[in-house]
Amino acid sequence: MTTPNFALFGAKPAFEKPLPIGQLYFPSWERYEVAFRGIFERQYYTNQGPLAQELEDKLQKFLNVKHVICVTNATIGLMMVADAMELKGKVILPSFTFAASAQSLSWAGLQPVFCDIDPNTHQIALDQIDTLIDAEVSAIMGVNLWGGACKPQALHELADTKGVQLYFDSAHAFGCAVDGIKIANFGRAEVFSFHATKILSATEGGCICTNDDELARRLRNIRSSYGAGSPVNVVRTSNGRMSEAQAAIALMSLEDFPENQRNNESLYRLYEKHLALIPGLNLVKPAGVSFSNYQYLVCTMDEQEFGLPRDLLIELLKAENVIARRYFYPGVHRSIPYMQELPQYLESLPNTDKLCATCIQFPIGALVSTEAVERICEILANAHSTSAAILARYEKQ
Ligand code: T4K
User: Fold this and answer.
1) Atom 36 (ligand 1): residue with closest C-alpha?
2) Which residue in 118, 218, 347, 379 has its CB near the most CB atoms, within 10 A?
């Protein structure tokens, strides 16, 4: 058996610097300087300044939605929406999501009801929602994952029939469309994340989209006063304002969205071509959308077929400076406080549990070149073909 030539066993790493997961958009220094000189000249940092207003206007046009309310990040956006929609009792959502989706409910004094997922698309299992709706459920939170979508029209019909509200955590779905309709226009509200790892970046940031005038007024008041137009009664206010510095980056990122989307899509196609030849790594296609941002490169792994445990592959890649991740792990139902407070879900989400054990993501985004994807896929192919030797060597270490 030949000794595998990997950095894990002392070889030189394939990449000099860590290659992370995430869009990680950086405008040129010159554009950054021009934008920030403007902020310094106006001497205006925050509180619905000209750049925040310009961003809201441009996003409304881009997303073809009536109201865009920019916020500090998507987590606070989700908390504000739950409050503005006056939700009560329980809200149904998938457990296969980032902790913020469920935590926003806890902050709003609501209880999550975790639904399992469709193992092929990773989106919420539509056919299981019905059985979870009882008199205490006031809403469904759809989560649009991985540049795909969770059948928003079907969810809309279900929510209407059952008399519950519907809104979306669309943190991953900026720029995506379903049957030609931009995500932003479904349910009563949708929330996007503009975190640095997302395709539209404000470094930190996000926005809430709605076509509901009254809800928009409430949200603007909850965010903190600015832009509501007329007074609205809200019980609680917060501070979810977006600063001018955040808005400046987001405006540049919005301008470069088409280029970043095209770059992601071509990297995705390259991975698709190479991964098709590597047993045990199954690429997940963005589901349910007519247009995707290709923001994530997600696979499920069959450890038997590939020849290595997933977590060992992640360790091996890390030594090469390829930062693969196991989003989401563990499922939110297995995290604090839900695993103690809601133990009923520990046995009732088999598809979520299986996916958390098999999901693996690879780098894609602005910092990733085609050469890097070729090299990553070469490492993956070598890891598969020498898996027995890797295991033997690893066990000896
Ligand atoms: N709903 C869903 C479904 C979400 O996925 C998220 C967030 C939210 C709601 C809430 O949105 P926000 O409130 O965050 O707007 C990241 C992001 O922090 C988070 O936004 C995202 N989802 C989540 C899935 O991933 P981490 O803890 O994995 O990030 P971190 O720091 O490990 O960064 C990822 C990689 O990027 C690392 O290899 C380091 C690298 N990196 C990161 C940053 C920020 C850089 O090289 N440079 C950077 O500036 O959470």
Assistant:
1) 20
2) 218
